[in-house]
Amino acid sequence: MTTIAVLGAGKIGEALLSGLLSGGRLPEQLMFTERYAERAAALTKQYGVRVVDVPTAVRDAEVLVVAVKPQDIDPVLDELAPVISPRNLVVSLCAGLPTSLYERKLPNDVPVVRVMPNTPMLVGQAMSVISAGRHASPQHLVLVEEILGTVGEVIRVPESQQDAVTALSGSGPAYFFFLVEAMIDAGILLGIPRNVAEKLIIQSAVGAAAMLAQTGEHPVTLREAVTSPAGTTIMAIRELERHGVRAALLAAIEAARDRSEELGKAHES
Ligand SMILES: NC(=O)C1=CN([C@@H]2O[C@H](COP(=O)(O)OP(=O)(O)OC[C@H]3O[C@@H](n4cnc5c(N)ncnc54)[C@H](OP(=O)(O)O)[C@@H]3O)[C@@H](O)[C@H]2O)C=CC1
Ligand SMILES: O=C(O)[C@@H]1CCC=N1
Predict the structure, then answer these.
(1) Superfamily of domain 4-158
(2) Is this model's pTM higher than 0.80 or not?
(3) Which atom of ligand 1 is closest in space to residue 70's alpha carbon?
(4) 170 lines ligand 2 (CB under 6 A)
């Protein structure tokens, strides 16, 4: 089985390690790099996966998953450039960073696949969206689909759509968490104990997500089925529309897309 090194084991890097282990990969097939010895030791203790330096990752792993913040990419590219070979496949999870950045900074036509995952990877429910760079073959895409398929759903898009994808599904879980948080607050406002409000709202979110995933019905149809004539739901919907929640979501997701583009532009030269 393919050996995978995660370069930068923060939130998404750890989610990937954890998800791959839960999906059946062995600790010996995984490794990670990490700046702080204390965090490295904690991760090794928790997952049984070894911490390595970049040359070891390049030597021992076919797939190098870059999971540092976009702002931290330059030192990683500097470390990779002298040691990387075309037998390595670079899989970038970094928001905004185009495959052309890696192709420009790394030698030997190294293949690169750009991926936008999301944190539900931690529970095997990621949405990962992949795009091939210039030197990535169909086999490389299949390999990335196989790896990420063990931690959720995977689809391919042209790389030109990745900034929009980042705003939709990359950041998407945060919008749902924000909504849940606000709805729990509404429960508090109405005098419901916090633990009860949390139970009501989280199970409603889980149930609504399951209906969306399992029924194949359009969200509008599902919402209409909850919205009785002159009932309670339509009163709430009127307030949501009056406060511009739909327009706020459109503007929010557009702003996230713009930020992803900006992160890429910062590395153009
Ligand atoms: N969080 C998310 O929901 C998603 C994130 N992403 C992308 O994933 C990437 C990581 O995000 P996230 O996990 O949230 O960020 P984190 O800051 O949690 O993780 C990045 C990790 O990389 C480490 N790191 C930085 N530089 C190096 C280096 N030179 N060598 C080894 N390790 C290094 C950081 O260490 P230190 O803490 O010491 O700086 C940190 O542990 C980003 O590019 C982001 O765009 C993509 C989709 C979703
Ligand atoms: O907020 C961010 O920049 C990262 C990318 C997508 C989700 N989190």
Answers:
(1) NAD(P)-binding Rossmann-like Domain (3.40.50.720)
(2) yes
(3) 43
(4) yes
